[in-house]
C-alpha cells in the first residue's frame, strides 16, 4: 500500500494536472496520520507542536501543554492506532499539569485541550482525563468575570488573572460544547451556565439587521469592528449555536442560530456568475465591503448540511473547490471577484475537507469523496516532508513554511479518513466540536466526579456506547 501511495503523489506542480488512479482514501489518510505522528513522536515528543522542516519544536508558552498529544489522541483511537494512542494517553495521564504560571488563549485551550480531553475520556473512560478536564475548566472560569459575562481573551492558569478585553464572536461563542459537556460529565452546572450566558450576551448585541461584527470589547459590549462575514473571528460562533441544539437540545441556541443564519444568508451571501460565495459586509447596513472568502469560510457548507440546507451547501462547496483548484491549495484569503488569493498562506486547514465529509455523509454522492482524493493528493504532493507535513506559505508557488499545527492531526487528516470511511461514525450519536473532537449526545449528566481522581485508566479503546458508532 505504501508503494502505491508513493507512486500516486508527484511533485507539487506536476501533480496538479496528472491523472491518477483512485486509492483507498481511508487507508491513505491513515498512513498520513502515521507519518505525521511518527515525525512528531521522534522530533517533538513532550512539546506542543513540530516544525517538520527544521525538525525542531514550537511551544505555545514557556511550559508546554502537550497540545499535539491531547489534540491528536482521539484521532489515534478512532483510526485504531492503539499502540500510539496508549502511549500518548499514559504520557498525558502522568505528565500533563495545568498548575503553571502561564497565560493562555481561553478559546484555543478550550477547543483543543479541553475538547480533546473530554472526547478521549468518553472514548476510553479514563478518569484521569476527566480529572484533568475538570481542573482545566475550573482554572478557565475567571475568564468570564467581565462586566458583560463575555470572556476575556487570555487567562493565567495559576493565578486566574484574565486579560485582553478585545475579543470576537468566535472566541466568545465557541465554548459551550466543551464546557457544557464538562457540566454533563461532572454534574457541575457552572460551566454550562457561564458559556451559555456568553452566547446570549453576544446575541443580544447583534445589529438591527441581525449581524455581528468581528471585534467587540467584552468589558463595555461596544463593537470595535463593523465588518461581518463567516470567516475567522465569527465562523464558529454560528457553528456552536446550531451544535449546542444538536448536542444538548438547547432550544434557545436553535432559535439564535435560525435568526442569525437568516441574516447571514440575506446580507453576507453573494450570488455571482461564478457561483455562490459569502463576502464581507457592514454589520449595520449590509453594504458589501469586500468580495473575500477563504479557507476558514469553507466550514460553512458543513454547517448548512447540519441545518438541512443541502442545496446551498452543495453550491458553496463547489465554489470552495474552485478556490482550491485555482492554486495548489485553498488560500486563507481569496477574492472571488478576481479569483486570486489575497492572503496566500494555507496552514493545513481542515474546513473544506470537513464540508466534503458532511456532504458525503448526508447525500452519499460520490462527488464529495472525489474531492477528498484531490485534497489528499495535493496535501501529500505539496506539504509532505520526511518528518511530517508542513504549512504552505504561498499556495500560488507551493513555497513551504515550517510548522505542523496540532489541528492537522486533530481535524484535517481525521476528516479525510472519515470521508474515505463513510458511516464510521454515527452523526446521530456524536457532535464534533470545532476542533473535530467528537462529543457524545447524552440526555443527562453522568455522575462521575466522585471517582475521577481515584481510579486508574482502562484499556485505550472506545466504550461500548461509542464503539457502536466506530468501525473497529
Explain how this protein is built.
- The structure is a single chain.
- By secondary structure, this protein is α+β, with helices and mostly antiparallel strands.
- It has helices at 2-8, 25-43, 67-78, 82-95, 106-124, 127-140, 169-173, 176-186, 190-203, 235-248, 251-268, 300-306, 310-325, 351-363, 366-383, 406-420, 464-467; strands spanning 49-51, 56-58, 103-105, 154-156, 162-163, 166-167, 215-217, 223-225, 227-228, 269-272, 275-278, 280-282, 288-290, 292-293, 333-335, 340-343, 384-385, 388-389, 392-394, 399-400, 430-432, 438-440.
- Strands 3-4-5 form a three-stranded antiparallel sheet.
- Strand 4 (154-156) and strand 5 (162-163) form a beta hairpin.
- The longest helix is centred in the N-terminal third of the chain and has 19 residues, at 25-43.
Brief characterization of the structure:
The chain has about 475 residues and is α+β, with helices and mostly antiparallel strands.
Keywords:
single chain; three-stranded antiparallel beta sheet; 17 helices; 47% helix; 13% strand; disordered C terminus
The percentage helix is 40-55%
- Given as residue ranges, the uncertain stretches (5+ residues, pLDDT < 50) are 1-11, 13-21, 445-472
The main β sheet shows up as: 3 strands, antiparallel
> Which range does the strand content fall in?
5-15%
- Helix vs. strand class: alpha+beta
Mean pLDDT: 91
For the CA atoms, what is the radius of gyration?
Answer: 21 Å
Report, as a whole number of angstroms, the end-to-end distance: 20 Å
Number of helical segments? Answer: 17
Shape: globular
How would you write the strand order of the largest sheet? 3-4-5
Number of strands: 22
